[in-house]
Amino acid sequence: MSLKNFNPRTVVLLLFILSIAMLRVVINLNDPVSPLANFSPIGAIALFGGAYFDKRIKAFALPLLVLFVSDLILRQTVFRSSDKQILYSGWYWVYGSFALMVIAGRLILKKLSISRFLLSALVCVLIHWLLTDFGVWIGSKMYAQNLSGYINCLTSAIPFELRFMSGTLIYGATLFGVFEWMQKMYPILRTSKL
Questions:
Q1: Closest alpha carbon to 152 in 134, 174, 173
Q2: In the chain, what's the furthest Cα-to-Cα distance?
Q3: Chain centroid to CA 53: how far?
Q4: What are the tens digits of pLDDT across the range 144-186?
Q5: What does the mean pLDDT of the chain come to?
Q6: Predicted TM-score of the model (pTM)
Q7: Per-residue model confidence as pLDDT tens digits over 42-58
Q8: Contact between residue 107 and residue 56 where contact means Cβ atoms under 8 Å apart
Q9: SS3 142
């Protein structure tokens, strides 16, 4: 790679995402049923990637790759099971919701503000809640396979989604706040896209 094509912004964004994703792994290493279950940075990572990566492929691929690697680490350590699956069952619902969260970040956070960040976090949690719990509900023996069963599934997930919201807000405020500050300090990290 030539220095002419080197983009420090991309490297810094990726380092931010990697460092926050490492927290996801570390938090879960001690206890797979932690009281911090779902206090996760994945919503913040999706919004951050969607908001700051200029190219669509980077906005989706890099955060999804980080999610995949952290899932692999967790699956092979804390959540190890006797089955030979690489990922957990229903992973496609999580990855689908993650991709939609990246889209939310790209659309809502074209111009960053506190109100837009709060709106994007709320949209992110709603996407996660409705889509991943649809994956839990569909075909489940725990919940009736009708609208009432889906609503029961959603209701059962409220404590987890509240933690997901807290994680998205706290990790997101950290990611966005520190990167915005860094852009002011180091103009090379800025781009024409805001």
A1: 134
A2: 59
A3: 15
A4: 999 999 999 999 999 999 999 999 999 999 999 999 999 999 9
A5: 87
A6: 0.86
A7: 899 999 999 998 888 98
A8: no
A9: coil
Contact by Cβ (8 Å): 65, 192: no
7 CB burial (10 A radius; 0-12, 13-18, 19+): middle
Residues in CB range of 39: below 8 A, 6 or more apart: 27, 163, 164, 166, 167
Give the integer Cα–Cα distance in Å for 126 and 186.
Answer: 35
Instruction: Enter the CATH code of domain 3-189.
Output: 1.10.1760
**CB burial of residue 101 (10 Å; 0-12, 13-18, 19+):** buried
Number of H helices, E strands in the chain: 7, 0
- The Cα-based distances of 11 to 8, 14, 161, 171 in angstroms read 5, 5, 31, 19
pLDDT value at position 33? 56
The first and second tokens of residue 152, run together, are 């029961």
Could you give phi then psi for residue 38, rounded to 5 degrees?
75, 0
Two structure tokens written together for 98:
């993650």
- Do 59 and 50 meet the contact criterion of CB atoms below 8 Å apart? yes
Instruction: For residues 118 and 123, give the distance between their C-alpha atoms in angstroms, rounded to a whole number.
Output: 9
Specify the amino acid at residue 27. I
- The percentage of the chain sitting over the pLDDT mark of 70, rounded to a whole number, equals 88
Distance (Å, rounded) from C-alpha 22 to C-alpha 17? 9
Q: Which tokens in the block code for residue 133?
A: 């719990």
Task: State residue 95's pLDDT score.
Answer: 94
Computed over its alpha carbons, how large is the radius of gyration of the chain? 17
